[in-house]
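ping. complex inputs:
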Amino acid sequence: MAKSVTFNLLKPLQPPKTAWDKIYDWIVDKARYVVMVTIILIAAAFVAKVIVDTDAKNKKKQIDSLTERLNFYATDVEPKLRLFATKEDVYTKLWDSSSNSADIIKEIYSYVTNPGADLTIKVADGFVSVYGTEDLDLLRSLEASLRNSPSFSSVTFSNLTINQQDVQDLKGDYVLTAVIKNNKRTSLQ
Amino acid sequence: MMSEAETKSQIRQNRLNELLNTSQKKTYFVSAVTVLFVLLMVLIGILPSYSAFTAQAAQNVRRQEAIDQLEQKRTTIENLVQEQDNKQTLVDKFNTAFPNQYDQISVLSEVDGYVLKDGVNLLNSTFTSVTNTNDIIKKFQVTRQVQAQSVSLLLEGDRDTLTNFISDMENNVTIFDIGSAVITRKVGKELENSDPNKQFKLTLQFNFFFYVQDAK
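pong. complex structure:
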């Protein structure tokens, strides 16, 4: 027996869509783009988070390693370097403020033309004293030179003894004192 | 007869249908729901992810700053160590010039060197007590760790050689701070019996310094 085939050419009748059907349509149609974009953003954020987490882990390892190394330096190397630096600073201060007597003595001798002159030169505590027992001309010349020198101030006689015979011989006992100024030595480079 | 629950459901259904039954209302409703949905996604999905990422990124920036500082310190220390190694001879010379304890032999050796160089005679040398630290602090504006020992020398020579000796002492790497220098010409028999190049005497008092790390 032949099987009958039926064709229904009418548009199938659908029941009218309920509100929930419409919402379903909206979800699978327009809202999916929102969901997709959100998922893409969340996935991107996740990947970025993994990257920054890995980076953070590496940085922490690096910090730990550097800290360990610096702790070693702090106990072993750094104190030596600090001591050396401190000593170097102190040394510079000592150098800059230590004595410069040779230049003073050389300058005084430059005013004494007679190498055999009976003079005693004392340089101490920022003062210079010249003690002599002869040649008042030398004394006058020395006094004038010291007064004109920028290296000295307050040039005075603390003692001058001349008797009658000394006046005739142009001789006498004298102590000439002066304050040393501008006696800074060359700073260390 | 419909139950009360069914009645309420029917009322909600009707309200929803009312919202969607005209094109204008539908557009407003769908737009509002879409905006709400987007907000919801932003609040529960995007913002937490973004804030987790940015917080970690900010922490990484701080960690990088810390690394840079530590790295800089490490580089500085290693460069200094390297420099010290390269200039070890100079460092040793400095430590000899400015030792951690007084070293009389080294001082005498340097004095002898200049005595020979300048052609003067060393008649006497005396190491006296360690200088009062307060005087050193006051004069040089240094800390208590810096200490000094006082030395007195008596030398003979002519005035140029003795002046050169003082100059050499003062320009020496080991600092000799001359507290007092007295140059005098010999007199009487001493002068008559003296070598012509040794007619002057020099009395020198000076301090040399050392650095005591543990000084209180």
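The longest helix of chain B spans residues 23-86.
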